[in-house]
TrEMBL record:
<dbReference type="InterPro" id="IPR050109">
    <property type="entry name" value="HTH-type_TetR-like_transc_reg"/>
</dbReference>
<keyword id="KW-0238">DNA-binding</keyword>
<dbReference type="InterPro" id="IPR009057">
    <property type="entry name" value="Homeodomain-like_sf"/>
</dbReference>
<dbReference type="InterPro" id="IPR001647">
    <property type="entry name" value="HTH_TetR"/>
</dbReference>
<protein>
    <submittedName>
        <fullName>TetR/AcrR family transcriptional regulator</fullName>
    </submittedName>
</protein>
<keyword id="KW-0805">Transcription regulation</keyword>
<keyword id="KW-0804">Transcription</keyword>
<feature type="DNA-binding region" description="H-T-H motif">
    <location>
        <begin position="33"/>
        <end position="52"/>
    </location>
</feature>
<feature type="domain" description="HTH tetR-type">
    <location>
        <begin position="10"/>
        <end position="70"/>
    </location>
</feature>
<dbReference type="Pfam" id="PF00440">
    <property type="entry name" value="TetR_N"/>
</dbReference>
Length: 217
């Protein structure tokens, strides 16, 4: 019985999260109330508050889901990290960057509602604004860490390079859909990879599978 109750609690919590995300997508974060979310989930505001002290706390839980979808894991140094992103930046090759961007772009349809809701929430809730800004900073730190491991570029330039590539990625992830900006997925990834390579590679990066050019006589 205890296991059944726990399963029901998890189902109710997930139903509230899914209902809220659907409403945020349809109406926007600011226009969606706790009563709206409870009604969409087929429950009451009392039940809502049994799971989330506030709408902001529910949004924090959605950001936690976003981290899971993006394979961001806990990190003692900077709260969360995407280890694969660090490795790709460390590699620095156009091939590795392109492969990673293709993989992550395949998740954009799934994460876009979370991203849009998070940024809408940040616009009206100062606490969430700080959380979203910190979340972006964690991604920037991944880029910095990759450049640090590779020993590329002056240390005082690595943060700005991270800011620029993550800003590009965030904007495209939230706004690009097939055919938008007159670019299909392949063209969009190719141009984004070109920009990232320019910012993250100093020309010495080489894919591990790429053989060195033979010495010239």
């Amino acid at each position: 019985m205890a296991g059944l109750r726990e399963a029901q609690k998890r189902m109710t919590r997930q139903l509230l999260l899914d209902s809220a995300l659907g409403l945020f997508r349809a109406k926007g974060y600011a226009a969606t109330t706790v009563d709206d979310i409870a009604a969409a989930a087929g429950t009451t505001r009392v039940t809502f508050y049994a799971y989330f002290p506030s709408r902001s706390d529910l949004m924090r839980a959605l950001i936690g889901e976003l981290n899971e979808k993006l394979e961001r894991v806990d990190s003692p140094a900077r709260r969360s990290t995407a280890r694969r992103l660090v490795e790709v930046v460390q590699d620095g090759s156009r091939e590795a960057i392109t492969e990673w961007l293709y993989d992550i772009s395949g998740r954009w349809d799934s994460v876009r509602p979370h991203l849009v809701a998070a940024f809408e929430a940040a616009a009206v809730d100062p606490d969430l604004r700080g959380l979203v800004n910190a979340w972006l900073d964690e991604a920037v730190s991944d880029v910095e860490e990759g450049l640090h491991r590779a020993g590329r570029f002056a240390p005082d330039s690595r943060h700005l390079r991270g800011v620029l590539v993550i800003a590009q990625l965030d904007h495209v992830a939230r706004n690009w859909t097939p055919g938008r900006w007159k670019a299909d997925r392949e063209a969009m990834i190719d141009i984004l990879a070109e920009s990232w390579t320019g910012l993250l590679s100093d020309g010495t990066a080489q894919s591990p599978t790429q053989a060195p050019a033979p010495d010239q006589p």
